[in-house]
Design a protein that fits this description.
Number of strands: 9
Bound molecules: hypoxanthine
Structural class: alpha/beta
Number of helices: 6
Order of helices and strands: EHEEEHEEHEHEHEH
Distance between the termini: 28 Å
Length: about 240
């Protein structure tokens, strides 16, 4: 039975579609709330993972941890050792533009980064990490049908949550980058190299420009909206 340094499913199957919230307890919450018959497949380092079904389709959900080094190792193992074909990060982001409201949904069409992670691919220039168009198209169509405010564009996957350079967000913003988060460029690169599909979907938890912040209760309903956009991707 396959296991890896960070995932030991002890025989529990992992679905082709894996949702990746940052927080492992979020993964447990998603499994308990949205999946039928969830079974835990991982507890290594408390990075909880579960497999169940959503409207009859197998789906797994597992914590990714924070940052590109963490999400990229889990994504790599899920794809290369366990056959995952579609990875969907569900998380929060800090808005960089004034027209993004708290709780709006952001879909990462592309993911810039200040990380050195992509240098391992030894490309002769900058790689542009992009989300799967099939997944973007489906999420955006359903968001519009359900009148959910959705913004599609670039995010910046940054290494430093507390950046010593206080002007850095302004510079990403000046290039039209919608929001800042910490994982998606790594996820997209790992998926691209493996020929897998990936997408990052976020709710705006704070606005870096205006200083607006959400409350925990409000975050929960925004989270539900995002999950209702993400879960049907398993059936594509
Ligand atoms: N920075 C990085 N990641 C984030 C932020 C932020 O301000 N907000 C939510 N995720």
């Amino acid at each position: 039975m396959t296991s890896t340094p960070h995932i030991d499913p002890h025989g529990v199957p992992i679905a082709e579609t894996v949702l990746l919230p940052g927080d492992p307890l979020r993964a447990k919450f998603i499994a308990d709330t949205y999946l039928d018959n969830p079974v835990q497949f991982n507890a290594v380092r408390n990075m909880l993972g579960y497999t169940g079904t959503y409207q009859g389709t197998p789906v797994s959900v597992m914590g990714s941890g924070m940052g590109i080094p963490s999400i990229s190792l889990y994504a790599w193992e899920l794809i290369h050792a366990f056959g995952a074909k579609r990875l969907v990060r569900v998380g929060t982001c800090g808005a960089l533009q004034t027209d993004l409201n708290l709780y709006d949904v952001v879909v990462a069409q592309g993911a810039c980064t200040d990380s050195n992670f992509l240098s391992q691919y030894r490309l002769p220039g900058d790689f542009a990490p992009i989300g799967s168009f099939t997944l973007i198209d489906d999420v955006v169509r359903r968001a519009r049908e359900n009148k959910v405010a959705v913004h599609v564009g670039n995010v910046a996957s940054v290494d430093a949550f507390y950046n010593h350079d206080e002007t850095v967000n302004q510079r990403w913003a000046s290039m039209g980058v919608l929001a800042v988060e910490m994982e998606t460029a790594g996820l997209y690169a790992v998926a691209a190299e493996a020929g897998a599909e990936a997408l990052g979907i976020f709710t705006v938890s704070d606005n870096v420009v205006t200083g607006a912040e959400t409350t925990p209760e409000e975050r929960q309903s925004a989270f539900t909206q995002m999950m209702e956009l993400a879960l049907p991707l398993a059936a594509l």
